[in-house]
Amino acid sequence: MSADAPEGARHFELELKLFLEALYLRYDYDFRHYSHASLKRRITAAMTRLECRSVTQLQERVIHDAACFPVLLDFLTVQVSDMFRDPSYFRGLREKVVPLLRTYPSLKIWVAGCSAGEEAYSLAILLREEGLLNRSLIYATDINAAALKRAESGVFDIERLPQFTQNHRESGASSSLSDYYTAAYGGALFDPSLRERIVFSDHSLATDAVFAEVQLVSCRNVLIYFDRTLQDRALSLFHEALSHKGFLGIGAKESVRFSSHAAKFQELVATDRIYRKVGL
């Protein structure tokens, strides 16, 4: 930050760095390489929620009161998604990736940053429609335990279904989304047989290592919240996890082009940011 920056902004930046370091030391959650612009907005909102007048006061409260940390985590992690979000991405998977996935005797897929499970269930439905779910296993990971618990339930608010349904239809679906859930009491419970093919687990792209070899990694609208260092770390994990000529899908506003791993991936569907690992 420049020397002529407002004094308050410099203090905030210093407090933020100390706060992120304290969170890492106290809870082993590493947000130090997340985009500071995004973190500032989220921490400011958390300060309002927890009635703290400064980042230092927020730090003291969270460090000394473990019950506050899950509340803070909900602000620091992105929990906004939809089933079949950006339908053209799923259409691209159907048209360009699924035909190649059919050649594998079994499939493992990693949904990194799965939030409340929308992406994982979307992929499970797509794989069922394409006749591949019975030989597939989906690893859905996130750092937010509360989000993972919601994801495991397979229940979504019923008012979200119209958007889910429209997205599903536009993704090139061969069935109706209503075939996959039962609605009751304001919620939609998705078919438990979909859940049987999904393993929900805690995993941090900032600190954890690769845990399995997979044929497809789907990590959308997550890298935009990382700085360049953490983006490169995440892409390194994805490259290591992917099998020979495996597939990577990222968000529409994200790219591997400017990363140190750009040469390790080739574009398969440029408009929807679907890549293929370069073969040796």
Shape: globular
Query: How do the SSEs run, as a string of H and E?
Result: HHHHHEHEHEHEEHEEHEEE
Mean pLDDT: 92
Roughly how many Å apart are the termini? 43 Å
Just give the CATH class of the largest domain. Answer: Alpha Beta
Strand content: 15-25%
- Within CATH, the superfamily of the largest domain carries the name Vaccinia Virus protein VP39
At the third CATH level, what is the topology name of the largest domain?
A: Rossmann fold
- Derived from helix and strand composition plus strand pairing, the structural class reads alpha/beta
Helix fraction bin? 40-55%
The profile of the biggest β sheet is:
7 strands, mixed
The name of the CATH architecture of the largest domain is 3-Layer(aba) Sandwich
Count of strand segments: 10
Radius of gyration from the alpha-carbon trace, in angstroms: 20 Å
Describe the fold and architecture.
- This protein has 280 residues and is α/β, with parallel strands linked by helices.
- It contains 10 helices and 10 strands.
- The strands form 2 sheets. The protein has a 7-stranded mixed sheet with strand order 6-2-1-7-8-10-9. Strands 3-5-4 form a 3-stranded antiparallel sheet.
- The longest helix is centred in the N-terminal third of the chain and has 21 residues.
- The radius of gyration is 20 Å and the shape is globular.
- The mean pLDDT is 92.
